[in-house]
Amino acid sequence: MKKILLVALTIILTSQITFATENIKKIDIKQAIEIAKQNNLDIQASKIDVDIAKNEIKKANRLQNPDIDVFYNFGKAGKGNPQQIGASQTIELAKRGARKNLAKSNLIQTEINLNFDEFNLGMDVREAYINLVASKAVLKNLMVQEKLFEELVEIAEKKVKTGELPEIDLLQARIALNQIITRINSANMTVKTKMIEFNKVINAKLDDYDSIDDFFPDSNDFLAMLTPKPEAKLPDFEIIKENSLKNRVDLKIAKQEIDVAQKNLAVTIRQRIPDLDIKAGYGYQPEHLSDDGTFRPGAYVGASLVNIPLFYNYSPEIKNAELKVTQAQLEYESAENKALKDLRKSYDQFLTSQQNLNFYNEKLVTDSKNMIEISKKDYESGNANLTSLIVMEQSYEDILEGYTYTVADYYKSWVEFLREVNTEDFDLDTEMI
Fold first, then answer.
1. Residue range of the domain that includes 229
2. How many structural domains is the chain composed of?
């Protein structure tokens, strides 16, 4: 009975795991970026802002609605006076054009903001993808180390049986193996966390995604992760700086803020211009109210200036609008200064990560791999003790983990560099696409 229950439970658990994995789609980094840009709910919400800004242009260009006016005199007051029915229309003078220009400037700003959001989303997806692959690579390395320690335990067991080693060496080997197992458990949890973060960035409504890569591509395939090879040479900083300042979207946004503030100032100043109110309609005197006892038809027209800035001339509003122009100009200068510093930092960070990765590739990884092979053979032949082999194994494990994080840092420093040059397509040969 217990066996039947165990088999049934196994089938249920297996089916649940299968169902869960079927809903997860494996994608590469390019697909992840495209899916995020198409399906990210935050980007969809930002696109609505563009539609709202377009409608604001129509709103700014509106005409004032007319009024219907009726004047009727009763009793003796109506004797000899006309009755009137007509319409009045307020015509804004020199205001609609300024409002429309402001709305157009706001639309441009909204579109730039959307492009910036999409660009940052692409960079966020890249970084989340890299973090997920890095966590998988760490897990893979630990599993390789687990097999090495399992082999070590097997060797120790044989040597203990033949009396070549004391039993404490076997316990030491098992403790080292169990330590790896606990680290594998933690690494598994890290992979799950990074996958959740990856899907959080994509922010699609229906599907869940996983990276198609379970470890970083080999050194000859960095382009698969949209990153140059470690031996590629970065252009001189002065060249990059010049091109970056021309293309940075955040600086375009800051510059557009100045334009919006200037357009808003124009709208505010024109509030001082009075509006023209025009009236026209039909006027008449009924027979019983006219002087000669006959029906007298006619018409009337009139005009007046309204909202004359005599008692209030909008000085506070104009002063605030002028201050906002000055504020926007200062913010642009500040953004430019910060951009240069951030660009310099990302440039230096990428060069450092490039040097570190090349050092790992040329020295540490190859030497440490040879070291562990020699140590293992020495232990099997009795020329080295177990403690030194475990230390070597753990050292090799640390080097592999460090290498994985160095590769991840290289990818992420490139992403950070792209953020600062504000382009997804940076060609090291032509400096900028």
1. 27-60+92-274+309-421
2. 1
Q: Where is pLDDT greater, at 377 or 51?
A: 51
Residue 113 maps to a domain: yes
Burial of 415 (0-12, 13-18, 19+ CB in 10 A): buried
Alpha helix (H) residue ranges in 163-284: 167-202, 237-247, 249-269
Question: Does residue 255 lie within any of the structural domains?
Answer: yes
Query: Is the residue at 378 inside a domain?
Result: yes
Over the stretch 57-101, which tens digit does the pLDDT of each residue have? 999 999 989 999 998 887 777 777 888 999 999 999 999 999 999
Which residues are CB-neighbours of 128 under 8 A, at least 6 positions away? 194, 197, 198, 200, 201
Q: What is the largest CA-CA distance in the chain?
A: 142
Q: Pick from 365, 357, 400: which is nearest to 222 by CA? A: 357
In this structure, is residue 17 part of a structural domain? no
Structure tokens at 23: 């809903």
Phi, psi of 391 (to 5 degrees): -60, -45
Q: Are 255 and 331 in contact (CB under 8 A)?
A: no
Exposure string over 324-360, b if 16+ CB within 10 A, otherwise e: bbeebbeebeebeeebeebbeebbebbeebbebbbeb
Q: What CATH number is attached to the domain comprising 31?
A: 1.20.1600.10
